[in-house]
Structure formats: structure tokens, C-alpha cells
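Bug #77: duplicate submission created two jobs. Keeping one. Sequence:
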Amino acid sequence: MAKALRVLTWTMGIACVAIGFLHILLGNAAMPGIADAGPTVGSFGRFMGAVFAGYGVAWIRAARQAPVPARAVRWLAAVLLLGGLARVLSIVLDGRPHWFQLVLMAIELGLAPVYLWLADADADADADADADADERARTGAQPTGA
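Kept job's structure:
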């Protein structure tokens, strides 16, 4: 599970940075259904692209640490979940968006709980390895596979 957490954390970080820069570079054209929304929405979209790229950098920073910090993963997953819930609120208040936004909402609402579930996986694996090493040191046993 620790490997899954690390892979998913790296993947999320790289995807968010790439998507963020796509929004910065393409503006309105990066968002299905609003290509002709005008300069105000384009400005907002590019700004949010920069914020999203920064969000991705935070995921990458977490992925680079050993163990992957559970607290950071929980906070980042909570932001992802909040984004998905904001999309639900938008549907309730404003109506059904472009189909691609529904796909993104499903990803956000589906992945956030996975990250919350896996958040402790790397720290738990690290603690288990430390406990095994302590036990070997105490008993003089050789590491497994030696």
C-alpha cells in the first residue's frame, strides 16, 4: 500500500502541474464548453491554472519525502474532496455542466477517499521496518533475505 500511495501521490502531482500549465497556456480553450467565455473568464482560468500547478507541486513535495507525510496527504486530499463537493454545489445551484466537468467531479469525489485511506500507508510501512530492525538488533537475528 505504501508503493500505491507513493505512485498515486507522484501521479497526482505531475498531472496537476501539467493541467495547471495547460490552463495557463491555453486559457479558455483548455476548458471544454467555455472557449468563447471572454477575457474575464480567461484571466480567471489562467490564474486558477497557476494555483492548480502550485497544488501539484505540493503533491510532488509530499511524494519526495520518506515516508510520504500522512498529514500532507490528508490536507491535499481534503482540498481535492472540497473541489468535488464544490462541483456538486454548482450542479445544485447552476445546473448540469459540460460532461467533462462531471467526469472530473467523479474523479475528485472518488480519488479523495482513496488518498485519505492510504494516507498512513508509507508511515506505517516505515514504522514496521523500524520495528523489524529493532527486533533484529535486540535478538541478533539476520535481516530477511540476507
